[in-house]
């Protein structure tokens, strides 16, 4: 399909489903077991209604904001996703360049298909990035990664992914066999194709340390000065714990339904944190990802108190069209966000952050 025919984020996933390699498609669109959490992430955004205000002079609105010290054009970041080359030749370079041209930040994955330097060089020299860390069973390897990241001024935050203590069962991915392993990081490991199948996620994720625990935050601290963001928070209790540990942020995430199937839709966790420990929003940045497909979803998240929203699969699929695809995906989201703001009577996102008066949550209570 022609890029000009694409008008929303789902179109990117559908385009990729038509022309992408079957294995890549299974890896990207797939999720755990029965896809309960995958489907809930998306459908729960649709159970939250606006309470629009009218006659408020919305002639001029701005989507600009700050997150983790970075000025951004809208409160959206590109999720860390492994082996982006499975989606298109330019891989992570398209995500980096597309993000920079759109004024948003790409959080690069430990399991990228190219080196950190390669990805950074896709954007202007001072353009910010975030780095996502999977902690390796062999801790010295993680220390080496952190030492490398410390040298790179463009990296502004460290997202530690904590929701995938073990790689989950992704059946679509496991059913299609391949020997191909393209992650730069895990290519140091031997592929472990066995009778469980050959899921790309599983064969590239075997190095992740299941022993990771809260005490390790102080170990990470001794190896980085970057703001630490815990990605994969799924309860108010763990949001509280991250705050107590002095982290600078959290991402409410269930890995896009790719970790525990049956984990709650991320928006339910956001509501739980608001209810049980609202202090969290004052002490650190609260981000969310999972099933965000519309600018109106972004506005809902902001009104619930989120500082930023991660978008995953649609951006990965947009790599099919290279940098231009990524830029188009961001432009669509930005335009939808601006329209939703105008129609809801919101001119300034900072002022609207956490303002529940724009929302009706009764379907979720
Ligand atoms: C991911 N995700 C992910 N997360 C992470 O911390 N490190 C990683 O390497 C990956 N890899 C990865 C690959 C692919 C193909 C997908 C789809 C996802 C999870 C990702 O960062 C994010 O949490 C979800 O993708 C968000 O959900 P949506 O927007 O895809 O619904």
TrEMBL record:
Keywords: Oxidoreductase. Residues 1-362 form the FMN hydroxy acid dehydrogenase domain. One of its GO terms (molecular function) is oxidoreductase activity. Its cofactor is FMN. It comes from the Eukaryota. It comes from Friedmanniomyces endolithicus. This is Cytochrome b2, mitochondrial.
